């Protein structure tokens, strides 16, 4: 491979593969409470059996007559496997290898904490600390398409103070400010066992294509309402406005931008910026207690992923003085996510005053769009079909089955527990990149599932 072609393909690969990790920032996390997990988060913005309702509906603080705190943690253990054929397209001909990676979605602990407090008979306030979005995928460095997908990590923390007003114990409204902190890492590399170094006369194995690390704070708002239709029936509605943190941090590479302009050194802690368009959500909840022993919860949540259209980054230090300027902005990828709904139903059984049992089911529509991506001109010219769905975001429709319960030690202290199993169908994934040579992955996921376990404590003063 001549140097001119190598420079061009390195730049193309950086543009096309950086999006894989950034797309992972779109994953919405439901895990805001242990009690909610037990009923598949059905009517989580409505029931208010503890202060965790504040993560979903700021009007929830109006349900409490005394200071109430809740805190807990959810352990998420996902397992995602992928395999397929990797084809390298070179002037010497096409070479195909089989490659796979198992359990590349990393386990995580998701904490939460809440405070609900009355001010007087009408006014109350709350404070919620939880996470909205998060994901980590970490592929093996020997995975033959690590230039497409290697390491992606997003951590967010949302701090939400809120205020609520209660109209005659029948209707309440609430408003919260959301202070979101986001920290992200995206890394793509050439495989450690790059099989074509000898044939092409290169020494690219293990090289970092792009390593982005950045963080930022952003501010948004939530508006919610609760309607106590009767003593046994309640309806809730809440809207979370969108967020768009502009991640600022460091960019490092063994290949860029020197692969484009040889007189420039590779990125070494260069400053970069990337804006994430995180979606707004609308949640509806309905809860009815039939009698002293049984209750029903219904929920629906709409997530506006349509705003997540593309990713663009800026690296001001890499101004090359050419038109078009390849790094300002650096067009990463057309994402073309689609909005979707999550539907959930939960049942509750109250055998005695101290114990509550829960069971739930949910159907969660994925954000990754089905079908083929027509925007990759190089892949189209080679006659290679490319899917919107990627290895780093093997998103699919998911189903949840959940179980949980609460035990009240006394009128002040209680403990919640919840368990869940979720799974999705295997999906076809086809991706293309130009580094170190045109590389095509044709395969998909062979397993998508996760186990969740959660526990929390609640105390009323």
TrEMBL record:
The keyword Protein biosynthesis does not apply. Belongs to the OmpP1/FadL family. Residues 1-24 form the signal peptide. It comes from the Bacteria. Pfam families: Toluene_X. It is found in: Cell outer membrane. SUPFAM superfamilies: Porins. This is Outer membrane protein transport protein. The keyword Iron does not apply. It comes from Microbulbifer halophilus. It is a multi-pass membrane protein. Its main location: membrane. PANTHER family: OUTER MEMBRANE PROTEIN NMB0088-RELATED (PTHR35093). Keywords: Cell outer membrane, Membrane, Signal, Transmembrane, Transmembrane beta strand.
